[in-house]
Design a protein that fits this description.
Layout lengths: L1 E5 L7 H14 L4 E5 L10 E4 L8 H4 L1 H9 L4 E4 L3 H11 L6 E5 L11 E7 L27 E7 L6 H8 L9 E8 L3 E2 L12 E6 L4 H10 L3 E7 L8 H14 L3 E5 H7 L7 E4 L1 E5 L1 H15 L4
Length: 309
């Protein structure tokens, strides 16, 4: 089992990193299953979100991030459940083929499960989260917890920096971290219309931004850097469910802005799809860890899969 997690309260780029790792392992020929708690989902027990062919459940039942991962990762199963040991057992019994390897999404603090590799994401915009737990800081665990990590990744970089990850690892040595550090870029794609059938929204188009993520500034900056005119913006709390009053607020603000479309994040798209009268587009993003990380990960996975005699 490979855990991908963080010490921060959101906004670390963990979901794109999880997607990149799961896709890499799938492309190596492994049967991969992502285990998630399904944060904010209302379903109970273990739920199979995807057997590798797209989401079978919606975000209200499964949570927004599992549905997003299920839609972006053909050939990768996604299973959610608050009891992730039970969810994993269900995956082994119900999925065909049975998983060769589990990727535990947001698993660093989920100590009930043994993991073989513990990967921890640190956001480049705020790597140490103030160095404290709330209220004085933005960490969910003390920095000393990093001692149980196998490797750390500095995420959200906008350009290649092969030294940044190593520098992060060195900065964590006083906290008894002994593993390697790597860097990972977050790369925005071109905005695309939801529903397809049209050319991508052209640069210069006036758009109205809607997001419910931990770090909306990064979304706004990415849209601006791609050359779009930002006619207005609404920011909601992370994992916002968009009840009817929020939808009405978006519709009213979009019309008043004169924008040609509502532009949102991929995580928000799964909750807004089919619920707005405005033309809807999304900004996809992907994580691109440095090549040294993939070499390290492949070596570790090979060791895990080596037969024991």
């Amino acid at each position: 089992m490979i855990s991908v997690g963080n010490l921060h309260w959101g906004g670390t780029g963990k979901t794109p990193l999880t997607a990149a790792i799961a896709a890499h392992l799938r492309d190596r020929g492994l049967a991969v299953c992502i285990l998630s708690r399904g944060y904010a989902g209302k379903g109970r027990g273990a739920r199979v979100v995807s057997v590798g062919g797209g989401p079978l459940l919606g975000p209200k039942v499964a949570g927004d991030e599992p549905v997003l991962l299920a839609g972006e990762l053909p050939g990768v199963a996604v299973v959610v459940g608050a009891d992730r040991w039970h969810a994993g057992q269900q995956a082994l019994q119900r999925l065909e083929p049975a998983p060769d390897l589990f990727v535990l999404d947001d698993g660093f603090s989920h100590l009930a499960l043994r993991r073989d590799l513990n990967l921890v994401a640190f956001p480049a915009a705020d790597p140490f989260g103030g160095g404290r737990l709330p209220l004085g800081g933005r960490l969910r665990e003390p920095l000393a917890s990093i001692a149980r990590a196998s490797a750390v990744l500095l995420t959200g970089l906008t350009s290649e920096d092969s030294e940044a990850g190593a520098a992060l690892a060195e900065a964590l040595r006083p906290y008894s971290f002994a593993g390697p550090g790597f860097s990972s870029m977050t790369v925005p794609g071109r905005p695309r219309w939801i529903g397809g059938g049209h050319d991508d929204p052209p640069a210069g188009l006036p758009v109205f931004l809607v997001s419910g993520i931990a770090r909306p500034d990064s979304f706004t900056a990415a849209v601006r850097n791609l050359g779009y005119e930002i006619a207005g913006e609404l920011r909601f709390p992370d994992h916002h469910s968009y009840p009817p009053p929020s939808l009405q607020q978006i519709a009213t603000a979009w019309k008043a802005s004169g924008a040609a479309a509502v532009l949102t994040t991929s995580k928000d798209r799964v909750k807004l799809l089919g619920r707005l009268s405005a033309p809807l587009a999304e900004l996809p993003v992907r994580a691109e860890p440095e090549e040294a990380f993939w070499k390290w990960l492949d070596g570790e996975v090979d060791l895990l899969r080596r037969p024991c005699f």
